[in-house]
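Let's sit down with a protein and look at its sequence and fold side by side. We need material for that, and I hope you will provide a protein of your own picking. Once you have written the record down, we can walk along the chain together.

***
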Amino acid sequence: MMPGRVLLGLVLAVHPLHSTHTELREERGGGITLTVRAFTDDLHAAVRAAEGSTGDSALARYVRRSLRLTGAGGQAVSLEWRAARAEGNVTYLSLTGLLPGGLRGARVQQVMLMERFSDQVNVVQVRTPGGATSLLFLPGQGPKALP
């Protein structure tokens, strides 16, 4: 094994990856679907610390505080909880909302788990009928405009 690979393996073993991936999809008629993928142990620790439990209601409150979407006029999009589904060491969270006029001019902020990890990285992949783009969120960053 090459020395660089050994060092990389040691760094990864000592310093775990802290990230989430969110898919934000614009549907016909102004419907919005969000799917968040997070490491289950990190997510449950954060929700338990913030809410005292990790049931669906606690997960929904945590996600709504951490993941915000506003329309072009600044109005907050109400996100309706759909489900949480665990697969291996990852949990998928699903929410929906309605944003008449679609995502054009909207803003998103994704700060999940940033209160726990200074190296947290959250990716938001935005899919609209016009194409797809990705936004990267690091600790301390505010909302970002959608293309």
Notes: The chain has a mean pLDDT of 89. The longest strand covers residues 31-39. The CA atoms of residues 55 and 131 lie 35 Å apart.
